[in-house]
Amino acid sequence: MTIEDRLKKIGDCDIKIIKSEIVKDAKLVIFKFDEFDTSAAIIYNTGELFHLKDWQGGVPATQKDIEEFDWLSEDGKDAIVLDGLPRLLI
Asked: Which end of the chain, N or C, is less packed with Cβ atoms under 10 Å?
């Protein structure tokens, strides 16, 4: 399943990736949904995906901005930001 397909399943809307930036062992992906709105996701090299809690708020412009936002795991669990990237505590 592609990143777009996974995000489409979460948001129940069309997704178009407009920017992708490597950050540590992951990618920061900025995407458009519903044609006009923009949101972000973090996808680790392992395939683990986190997305912004609020898809209608702002998006991190750079890696340094990631910690300023609230993140959810792909299955909707609240994440913490550790070492600059979202993570789940298990």
From this structure: C
User: For the chain, what are the domain ranges?
Assistant: 3-87
Sequence letter at residue 29: V
Question: Which residue in 47, 55, 52 sits closest to 65, CA to CA?
Answer: 52
| 67 closest CA partner among 24, 37, 17, 33 | 24
pLDDT digits 0-9 by tens, 34-84 = 888 999 999 999 999 999 999 999 999 888 999 999 999 999 999 999 999
> What sign does the CA torsion over 34, 31, 65, 79 have?
positive
* Cβ-contact 42, 6 below 8 angstroms: no
Residues 51 and 71 sit within 8 Å (Cβ to Cβ)? yes
How far is 30 from 8, CA to CA, in rounded Å? 14
